[in-house]
Amino acid sequence: MAFLYQMLGSKIWPPRDTKPDLTGRTLLITGAECLPNSGLGYESVIKFVRASAKRIIIGVRSIEKGEEAKRAILAQIPQSNVTIDVYHLDMLDYTTIEAFASRVNQEVERLDYVVLNAGISPHAYKKSAYGFESGIQVNLVSTTLLSLLLLPKLLASKTDTFTPVLELVGSGTHQRMPQLLPETDNTEKDISEVYNSETSFRTFGFIQQYSLTKLFLMYVQWQLVKLVDDKVSGSPRVYVIVVGPGPTQSGLGRDFQEQSSLGVRVAVHTMNLLTKTAEQGARTYLSGLMLGEKGHGQFWQWDSVNRC
Ligand SMILES: NC(=O)c1ccc[n+]([C@@H]2O[C@H](COP(=O)([O-])OP(=O)(O)OC[C@H]3O[C@@H](n4cnc5c(N)ncnc54)[C@H](OP(=O)(O)O)[C@@H]3O)[C@@H](O)[C@H]2O)c1
């Protein structure tokens, strides 16, 4: 019931469209190629371009789909002077994550904003090549790895008047997690093994397993915040934040849809129509990023941004 209320509420009263000024800024976003059902990443890039960003790096699994998204975006805003670079990145493959970060570190002069948007909500249990449940792999482990690899560039981009932002994408569903698995009270057990097991996936179900990845992402944020705080002044050298876009139309449920009966697909499609659009969801990403701009406090939306 609470979920339905949240879903309809954010459709009727979507997040504010803040339209900030990103002149001269370089942004990086992962997972922005979702066409034709554009997701939050794709809609965010449109907003970055409209806000006059100087350069945008898009990390995608399929260069072809990334280039297609780039063409579609530039066709919508032909007057823009932005440079969009499409780099290969697969969050299920550490080799590409390291190659992606190293390319960014070498080829990008400064990095003002990073949005680690790529995420999945798998319907069935699947293990990654590294032994993690695939949702935990993409949403949590690989996102943490990429955060750590990009932090040096973000730290080096801080100036007296500007603090770079590392934005992780969470989900309000993490607040609705029931208690964690009782096995984790047993100190003999390896927690990672417990939560990456098929038993955990079956116990929670795919929706709660997704929520679990986002709950653990909050713990990662706490640690990253500690890592980047200036020990002398106590103020952050990089803002590490988590934004929760809330229920939004996107391709996130495609795995579930593909594996469901026609009736369920129709029900999900109908429910999708009751949620806000990806463009409206992407507004939360922009609000979160504005933490970096001094004097732009009016762009904050505390209900959608969590900063520890
Ligand atoms: N939609 C919602 O209601 C909602 C609510 C709260 C939070 N979120 C979060 O918002 C973020 C964006 O999701 P969305 O709703 O926009 O879903 P989406 O349309 O499915 O977009 C997800 C993006 O992540 C990319 N991705 C998936 N696996 C990847 C991998 N292994 N390597 C690189 N990229 C990968 C996808 O690329 P491909 O096209 O290659 O698969 C796609 O571009 C996710 O972190 C999600 O958890 C969504």
TrEMBL record:
InterPro entries listed in its UniProt record: NAD(P)-bd_dom_sf, SDR_fam
Entry's family note: Belongs to the short-chain dehydrogenases/reductases (SDR) family.
Pfam families for this protein: adh_short
UniProt protein name: DNA, SC005
Keywords attached to this entry: NADP, Oxidoreductase
GO MF terms, alphabetically ordered: oxidoreductase activity
